């Protein structure tokens, strides 16, 4: 528990400029609590990636046959809702339930949503939930022409998404559970070691992120293979069971956790202060105005308002953080392509040992490299580099005073994610050239025939490696920044806002896909195969994302420079105040 003297402290918790003596082990006496949280998080990630890793393939396959745009938008919308709900989760924990019970109840909701997918995958229960499979609409000849887009006066009917309400219902329940867990389990874990100093918190975030990717590898390595090469029913039962075990581990850990009761919502105070500052009449007596106040200063008691100074300063800290979160939106837009359009692209590349034609032998048991396994390059890279960063690189940089701030690391991550989108665009350009010059090969994945380019899937590795490197810099540093820059009473709230803006990035990606799919643009308009990209211009979409990220990187450098400058001034003022 933090000391009482720290209750009103609003300085960043993690400050690389402050050196404190470290105990022999920063986790001493807290290992069991940290281990329970990390194990629960790893198992929860197995469940999460069990849903997202092959969702595009699941919706493309029999009997759903969703078009490529529909199948790509579903996980983007799911992840968008997941992250948008995070501030609500932080508010619920702070105002009513506390972090522990909020996480526990959210895992129950999460589990109920997971149960939808084994039932949807089973033919008998799916028919009861969704009805019989729908027939495909008859397409006019112009829609099937190979000579470009159909005429403007011709409408190409699209088959409605079979089983859509049940699938989206399950995804919404999962999203509500995941979003609430995400906004609370990170600060809840950091609470276990917060009193051990910033070094303990930084190291916990490193290992927390390591466990996230361990769960991802277990899910992608085993569950994704089962889903693609055996059946989706078993492939959805396994992550559902893992989530149940995660809930039990977390519940049993209650005896060793440091639990803090709900003590009021920072969001409630924040909205009251913002409303008062924006809408209330300001005092006109010059005697009350010692210095010219800012808009938020007018809510302070000392300036004629009705709120304590420390509460208003906390809201001002939040306002300074928001531009950083806004600048991260394009980063998340590109990042979430890893589970959507990158997978869609991989389904149209030659996958080793997949059937090259449709025959009786297609149904023999053969090993097929799961398309979702490429996501493991991102996770494996993180598993290898985080221990190296935690044990070797960071200590060396810290001793020499060269450890970069979290904002500088975020900027480096943005640079790498931009080049991931560029690499995807270059590969897609080459893939389309091969399709036009050499035609396609047929490969069977998930009982669906995909018309792929004769180009090995391994060419996707660079874009996954680049996005993995970006994650080590931007995502971990983003979590650290959200936790450390927040006043202590607003840590859950600001962590929720961090994930909220991640969700906006996912929705931006879904919205851009919808825009480029309209007939006037036509980048994603085709009706010739389920994957829906061989007659599309997906490479333009990737280059558009890279361009947006490049412009945002320049803006972010300006924002981060100003924020670090303001933070340095605030630190020097506090130091002068203490010395005086």
Overview in brief:
This protein has 580 residues and is mainly α. The chain is 63% helix and 3% strand.
Distance between termini? Answer: 30 Å
Order of helices and strands: HHHHHHHHHHHHEHHEEHHH
Report helical residue fraction.
Answer: 55-70%
Report the total helices: 17
Strand content: under 5%
Low-confidence stretches: 1-18, 354-365
Count every beta strand, where a strand is a DSSP E run of 2 or more residues.
3
User: Residue-averaged pLDDT, rounded?
Assistant: 79
Q: Work out the radius of gyration.
A: 25 Å
Strand order of the largest sheet: 1-3-2
Report the biggest beta sheet as strand number plus sense, adding barrel if it closes.
3 strands, mixed
Inertia-based shape: globular
Structural class: mainly alpha
